Amino acid sequence: MKAIALKNYGGPDDLTLMDLPEPKLGPDAVLVRVKAAGVNPVDWKVGAGYLDAILDAHFPLIPGWDVAGVVERTGPEVHEFAPGDEVIGYVRKDWAQNGTYAELVAAPVRTLARKPAALDWRQAAGLPLAGLTAYQSLRRLDVGEGETVLVHAASGGVGSLATQIAVARGARVIGTASERNHDFLRELGAEPVTYGEGLADRVRALAPDGVDAAFDFVGGDAVDVSRQVLRDPARVLSIIDPGVTAKGGRYLFVRPDRDDLTALADLADAGKLTVGVDKAVPLAEAAEAWRLSRSGRARGKIVVDVS
Predict the structure, then answer these.
(1) Which of 19, 91, 113, 154 could form a disulfide with 159 if both were Cys (CB 3.0 to 4.6 A apart)?
(2) Nearest to 211, CA basis, from 139, 147, 138
(3) Burial of 17 (0-12, 13-18, 19+ CB in 10 A)
(4) Fold of the domain spanning 2-127+275-305
C-alpha cells in the first residue's frame, strides 16, 4: 500500500511516500480503506519526537490518528461493522507506527463510529480528534443551557467545534480570534473578541458579571486571562498546559471513545455540527499540510486526501 512515513524522527521535509506492507489485522480490529485523513498538531509533534517520553515510536512511522473511510475487512471478534460500512475514527494506539496517512489502516473497533451522512469525506476526516477534544472538554466542565463560556482560539479546529457543541447545549459563547475570523465565528453562533493585550477587558464588556467556564485551546496566557473573567476561577480547562491543575483548573488529554464519536456524528446529522475544512492536499503532499498546521494559521481543519 502507499503511505506517507518517516524513516526517523523529523519534520515536513522528511515525510516520504513509501510502498509499505498492508497492516496486520487483529481479532478486534477493522481494516479501513482510507478516503481522507485529518491532520492535527499532534501528528507533527509525534513525528518530531516531542512525545518520545510518553509514546514509543517504531519506524518507518506512518503519522495520523484521524480517519474517514470504508470498511475493507473485519477481525473475527468484530460484530459492530461489516465490509462496505462507512466509518470515522480516532485511531490512537499505545504506540506510534501505523497511522492514517495511508491507503489502509487497521483500527481497533473501540476507536470507530459510523460516518455521519451529513459530512463529506474531508469533513468527516476532520471530526474525530478535534471533535472528541471539544466534546470531552465541555462535558468535563459540565457546560449547560444558559451558561456563558469563553472559548480561546474559537476559529481553530478544536475551538470551532467546541463553539458549535456549546451552542447546541444552549450556552452563550464568547470566542477569541483574529478580526479576519470574526464573521466566521458569528456564523457558528459565537460573539467574537480579538485576542491579545486587553482581552480580559473586552470579555468583561460583553459579560460584565463574568463567564461560567473557559476553555484554553491555544496556550500562552489563556488560562491566566480566563481566571480574571471567570465567576469561579477554578472552572477553566486547558488541553495545552498540564500546569493548569496547579491553579485549580482541569487538564484534558483526549481519549478514543466510540460512544462520544457517535454522539458527534448524531449532532452532525441533526444539522447542529459541521466541520470547516481550511485545506485539503493529496497524500503525496502531506508535507504542505504539516507546514500549514505548524504555522497555526489554519481556520478549521486540514486534511489529506488519500483515495
Answers:
(1) 154
(2) 147
(3) middle
(4) Quinone Oxidoreductase; Chain A, domain 1 (3.90.180)
Closest CA relative to residue 191, chosen from 175, 214, 168, 179: 175
CATH of domain 130-251: 3.40.50.720
Taken in order 306, 267, 254, 148, is the CA torsion positive or negative?
A: positive
| Spatial separation of the C-alpha atoms in residues 68 and 84, rounded to whole Å | 13
Residue pLDDT, tens place only, 245-296: 999 999 999 999 999 999 999 999 999 999 999 999 999 999 999 999 999 8
Q: How far apart are CA 269 and CA 117, in angstroms?
A: 6
| Enclosing H/E stretch for 159 | helix 157-168
Domain ranges of the chain: 2-127+275-305, 130-251
The 10s digit of each residue's pLDDT in 11-45 is 999 999 999 999 999 999 999 999 999 999 999 99
Residue 269 is which amino acid? Answer: D
Q: pTM for the full model?
A: 0.97
